[in-house]
Amino acid sequence: MTTYKEGIPLGTEVAHFLLWGYSLEEFPGRGVIEALGEDIEIEENAIYLRASLGFVKKDEKGFLVVDRRTKDIDKDEIERLINDFPTFVDGYEFELFYSFDVHFILKIKERNGWISDKISDSDPFYKNRYVMKVQPIKELCKNGVEYNKAKDTAKALNKYLLNVHKILENHKINRKRRKMEKMPANFLLTKWASRYRKVESFKERWGMRGVVLGSSSLFKGLAKFLGMDFIKIDSFKEGINLIPELNYDFIHLHTKETDEAAHTKNPLNKVKVIEKIDKLIGNLKLNDDDLLIITADHSTPSVGSLIHSGESVPIIFYGKNVRVDSVKEFNEISCSNGHLRIRGEELMHLILNYTNRALLYGLRAGNRLRYYIPKDDDIGLLQE
């Protein structure tokens, strides 16, 4: 399965959004998803970004990012640092919500009008790079008015970040940390600007009650955005044991362990994790009508410098309605010989097909177009 397009690496949030049958045009941006996952009250006339305290060194080119995450800094130090940050710049209101480690959600509002999320990141993301100037992204703007608003938003955010840097550079907390030979937190790096937009819920689109089992606030945010339930789990094993007790049409169990193992760039670490997960899946108790799907949302190479990569991923469908092919092993090479070669946008349609829920194309059941066979309660019935 190619989640989006061959060669394009995806983040977890976008990949799952596509796998669950939504388009990139409907995606609000990761900032909003993370804000929802942190239970922040979302306002329509505000934008949300991920912000992180890092360490930079200034030179003639700008601010070289030495570390995108300041190490060995406690929450008390962080709170004392951010208490001195400005809250208003050029008519824009800035508010930080602490998340975890050195990470925040940054909320920005325009006091006397609307605000644009069509702006670039300041966080360079990759190693040995400089802080980027926040700029309006022209191809994302629908017209000149929106571009000018994005330009104003970017200008205000750049000014805010520079003001914050000056405060951090001279802050007594950082002066103390330097004396103790600790890394200072002297820059706020931002990315993933986005604003809320309403989309069709998962149940409305696919006719199934869905639940997500995961360990991160990101999945909590995705579930909330799409009207799915969320159950926090501490381990993949806990999720496997919980599944038989759940009464849902669609259950999504996620583990980050394979991704984290690959990030160590030691392939043997990933082997150990896959073997552990394989044994746990073997303990899963399935009913006759259940459809089991095992796949990945993206490739995470265990060698090289890429964080995620853009190759296809193996996928298996196991259920009584599934056409069997000759593939006997579940891995990238073997699965490439299977009879299915799909894109992520087709996954939910195959699920409807294999669970006898797929509506014959062209039928018009109820007051909107559907992909699934609706129940009588979902549509209006003619009565005398």
UniProtKB/TrEMBL annotation:
Pfam families hit by this protein: PhosphMutase
Keyword line: Pyruvate
Keyword Manganese recorded: no
Top-level taxon of origin: Archaea
Secretion signal, residue range per the UniProt entry: none
Gene Ontology molecular function, alphabetical: metal ion binding; phosphoglycerate mutase activity
A biological process term (GO) from this entry: glycolytic process
Protein's recorded name: Phosphonopyruvate decarboxylase-related protein
Lineage of source species: Archaea, Methanobacteriati, Methanobacteriota, Methanomada group, Methanococci
